[in-house]
Amino acid sequence: MTISRKRVLSGMQPSGLLHLGNYLGALENWKGLQTEFECFFFVADWHALSTNYADTSRIREFSRELLIDWIAAGIDPERSTVFIQSRIPEHAVLHLLLSMMTPISWLERNPTYKEKQEEIKEKDLSTYGFLGYPVLQAADILLYKPDFVPVGKDQLPHLELTRELARRFNDIYKKPVFPEPKEHLTKFPKVMGTDGRKMSKSYGNTINLSDTEPVVRQKLKTMVTDPARVRRHDPGNPDLCAVYDFHKIFSLPMIQEQINTECRTAAIGCIDCKKLVADRVVERMTPMWDARARLNQDPSYLNDIVTEGSRRAGEIAKETLHDVNEAMNI
Ligand code: SF4
């Protein structure tokens, strides 16, 4: 007897190279979900257009890098369906159909719409596509009728809009086509960048999964520390140091304790402290680098994963769209 597992769906935009913050926040979580759920993970390349429509020159490269990072980090294509959004035209069709019934006020009240426009001033985001991207997101989710969508607290309003659209569709067409997906709340650990701010590609302070060992070591070497610790014999405060935040993630509790004490008494210098954490980071990243190298040597393997994943996802998307068309008399 086969027991059907609950379904989970999540995606990422190919708008840059993945970094340690993405790995510890999202990929580690995805990896764990695979043991319990039927997982669908997709590269949201059409989504990337909502903010990058004017420059698509690296979108294919970033999509490929994203897939390599996922597989290298432990996403298993035998257990999970891995695909690219633009290979499944049903995403665009459902987006169009849902957009016909989405009140504009629902989109205008989306907090990230205004926030992002403020944040990314250098791009013209006063577009129809940017306003409507939560509808595309709803289409991405509802096509696969997942039980859960992994989200951080800040993304809950988007998922709520997806649920509202599912309800609205079911109410208007009097057919329970779309179940309402629930949130699978994900805690994202705070990962600091090399400048002491949150690790983010927009700050240019990231350690990328595709960085080589010398680059990672160099980045950690130049990472900011407690600003009050100017000279070697000055005592430091690990609570104010980005390097210590890395120790909290990568070092054993015993070592964390030791550094906590030795930093406060100036028994350890920052150079040695950074070297210790760099060794742990390199240790953690080495299996991913090895996997990346293998994947880069065999491009057909990656193509096969995406072809098979897109085929599996496409079958489900077609079935859902059939139900949608039936409900809408189209
Ligand atoms: S010794 Fe380590 S924890 Fe203390 S300030 Fe230097 S780098 Fe930070």
Question: Key terms for this structure?
Answer:
single chain, 330 residues, mainly alpha, Rossmann fold, Tyrosyl-Transfer RNA Synthetase, 3-stranded parallel sheet, two-stranded parallel ribbon, 14 helices, 56% helix, binds iron/sulfur cluster
The gross shape turns out to be elongated
Instruction: Determine the CATH superfamily of the largest domain.
Output: HUPs
Q: Main sheet, how many strands, which sense, barrel?
A: 3 strands, parallel
Q: How confident overall, as mean pLDDT?
A: 93
Radius of gyration: 22 Å
- Number of H- or I-type helical stretches: 14
Ligand roster: iron/sulfur cluster
The H/E string reads EHEHHEHHHHHEHEHHHHH
Q: What is the number of E strands?
A: 5
Structure report:
The longest helix is centred in the last third of the chain and has 30 residues. The radius of gyration is 22 Å and the shape is elongated. It folds into 2 domains: 215 residues, HUPs (Rossmann fold), CATH 3.40.50.620; 82 residues, Orthogonal Bundle (Tyrosyl-Transfer RNA Synthetase). Helix content is 56%, strand content 7%. Helix 4 crosses helix 8, helix 8 packs across helix 9 and helix 11 packs across helix 13. The chain is mainly α. Helix 1 links the parallel strand 1 and strand 2. It has 14 helices and 5 strands. The strands form 2 sheets. Strands 1-2-3 form a 3-stranded parallel sheet. Bound molecules: iron/sulfur cluster. The site of iron/sulfur cluster (SF4) has 14 residues, from helix 11, helix 12 and helix 13.
